[in-house]
Specification:
The chain is α/β, with parallel strands linked by helices. The protein contains eleven helices and five strands; from the N terminus they run βααββαβααβαααααα. Strands 3-2-1-4-5 form a five-stranded mixed sheet, sandwiched between helices. α1 crosses α2, α3 packs across α4 and α10 packs antiparallel against α11. It starts with a strand and ends with a helix.
Length: 256
């Protein structure tokens, strides 16, 4: 079975903000501030934008396939949003993996849906629901209670909103590094400063936290025994050591 743990990072879609709110003439920074202000008017306190107004700037993944483990960010630092999304769905088409996320059902996947709609991106395998492949009838990427996409935050909370917890908190609870380098709320500022490389690195560490929590989840539900869990975590450590990248070395050093 192929396992693909993933995470996305986003910034305000300022072009859409200008069109929707009549903000032509404002620069990106001021447009984003206006978008945040309009959102606070609606919510009363939160400036977190609605899903369609998030532009994807990074998608990172951890792929467990055969005897290998790979950690990387899709595309290049200068790849367009459409290219990043196409690469993500190309991976689904190629590997038909079990997708693993933290709040992917509540955020990452809906954003991918809206942005794919915007760019006209086809993803037949992802949207399969059993019409052409009967194996997807009772286990597909779209149904909340199916495992082909496992949203760990949702599952561990027993689908109860009041029981959800942040990725950083659960990761640290398990002795994992949690957030390293920045927080999701800082991505827009980092993006404006041209630090897309740092954003991609941060996204990779979130995908790693998610994957390692998934291994504990597999141990908890009996799909891994103790020896199997140790083997998988040893492979993860070995993969990070061999990659020898500063952000992965920092992750490894903080992993208890």
């Amino acid at each position: 079975m192929n396992i693909l743990a993933f995470d996305i990072e986003t910034v305000p879609d300022v072009d859409a903000g200008r069109r929707l709110y009549g903000l032509e003439g404002l620069n990106d920074k001021d447009t984003a501030q206006a978008m945040f202000a309009k959102r606070r008017e609606k919510t009363g306190d939160s400036d977190f934008l609605r899903h369609p107004l998030h532009r994807i700037v990074a998608i990172s993944a951890v792929l467990r396939q055969n005897d290998s483990l790979r950690v990387w960010s899709l595309g290049e630092a200068n790849s367009t949003e459409a290219e990043l999304i196409r690469r993500f769905y190309d991976g689904v088409e190629r590997y038909t993996p079990t997708l693993v996320s933290w709040n992917g059902g509540g955020f990452d996947l809906p954003v991918l849906h809206y942005r794919s709609l915007l760019h006209g991106i086809s993803a037949a395998r992802y949207w399969e629901n059993g019409a052409d492949d009967q194996s997807f009838r009772y286990n597909n990427y779209l149904s909340r209670y199916h495992e082909r996409h496992t949203d760990l935050m949702d599952v561990l909370a027993a689908y109860q909103p009041r029981a959800t917890a942040p990725l950083d908190e659960i990761a640290q609870l398990l002795g994992l590094p949690g957030k390293l380098g920045m927080h999701g709320s800082e991505v827009w500022d980092q993006f404006q400063a041209g630090k897309i490389g740092e954003i991609r690195d941060y996204c990779e560490t979130d995908a790693l936290n998610t994957y390692l929590i998934y291994l504990r989840f597999e141990l908890m539900r009996g799909n891994l025994d103790g020896a199997g869990w140790q083997r998988e975590t040893d492979l993860a450590r070995k993969t990070l050591r061999e990659a020898n990248k500063p952000h992965l070395n920092a992750f490894l050093a903080a992993w208890k």
